[in-house]
What we know:
Elements: H1 3-10, H2 25-30, H3 32-45, H4 47-54, H5 59-84, H6 94-106, E1 109-113, E2 122-126, E3 134-139, H7 156-177, E4 182-187, H8 198-204, E5 213-217, E6 229-231, E7 236-245, H9 260-273, E8 283-290, E9 301-310, H10 313-334, E10 337-346, E11 349-351, H11 353-365, H12 387-390, E12 393-396, H13 408-413, H14 417-439, H15 441-468
Helix pairs in contact: 1-9, 3-15, 4-11, 5-7, 5-14, 6-7, 7-14, 9-10, 11-14
Amino acid sequence: MNRFIRLAVLIAVCAPPTARAQETDTERAAARDVLKKMAALEESLDVPGMVAKLTAASAERDAVVARAKELMEKELLGMADDIATHPEIGFQETRSIGKLTDYLRQHNFSIETGTAGLSTAFVARYRGNNGRPNLGVILEYDALRGTKGAFHGDQHSAQGPAGIAVAVAMSEYLSRTRTPGSVTVFGTPGEEMMPPNAKTEMHLAHAFDGMDVIVRSHASTVTSRPRYGFGTCCLNIDGVKYTFSGAPAHQMTSWNGRNALEGVIHLFNNIDSVRSSIRPEARIQGIITEGGAAPNVTPDRTAADFYIRYPDEVYLAQVTEFVDNAAKAAALSTGTKVKIDHYGQNRDGIGTATLGELGFAYMKIFGATNVQPEPGKPQGFEETGSVSRDIPGIGITAQSSTAPNHTYEMDADNLKPIGHKGFTIDAQTMTAILYDFATHADYRSAVKKEFDGIKALFAEYQAALKKVYERPVVPDPK
């Protein structure tokens, strides 16, 4: 088979996620006892009863939610449309954050930019903050990279304005009623890009420290919520760049050089050759980002960028080792050298029913469409798995498009009624959740109990996986 055809076969797309708690037979076997303990924890919380109580009639809550809706309809949907029609890719979102931070300043938020050394990251704190609970809101605003230029095919253009509506409505309420609580907004760039992984870098820089709960929204073709537990939307990921160095020569006398392009091509072929030794759930997705400068010059520098994925991070380490070794072997066999840069990672996060089921109930109350009755697979509320392992939170996904994510059709829906309706419901739902969290101490306690319990079980689960992923013993040849 032609090696480029094999390459196309190798770089498979990630299969749609299932609703199962763990995705492989090995994971399910390792998690058996953990899942039993988790089920007992959930039963002790009586989440359905809690949701029924919190969503009962409340004029005060409804007034705060109405304020968020008013802000969206009168001002912030217009901002979302503006950002959608002026897309900026990750870490270049200067115009977008200007719009977002200017609005926050006008509503009594102080702004700190350049968080974690990222020029388009920021943290905004309400000037009237009054102790705990600390309520966090994550904003995103980066556009996708496309062959036709940047475009908002994942609708991040609306995540900033929707989050701002929540932050302003809640800060006004806390200040007006003198209810204890603080509101902090986190501007997180480059969600679609590594490196760096912005939320992870901001977390390592302690930007999220002290938050008691965090909310965010994201575009979707359905209205759904994840099942409680641990997992990720798109598998655990290692981002790795392989850079090959050779020596230039005239292609008519190429033996005078060393061909770095052959090195990177052998990398893909070597991965193909060990496919049978890697568990089938793995996804190894790569592109050649540098392939040489001219056909008559032996390429002396090439590079490939890979996302290496697996349902859990324990076996992912073995998959990544296979790919690293494939690169080393490619360099050795072609007389080139390779630099391996592990530049980013996404990991499992923690999701809670106390937040997920409440958000789902509110989305239905506020009129969300294409409602999926059964919960999806467990996942953290943000894609890195770093923040959501340490702080409870929820990602709200009311239907805002009829087109799949990362498409030009979803981009078009940014400006249509279906997009505007979904974005507004996201804002209403996040506001209602934060209102309940700020005003019900028993609810805060339940969220913390569930989150801490699942986090402890997550550690137990990972320890179990390390025992079952045994490496075969390969003897020295005789």
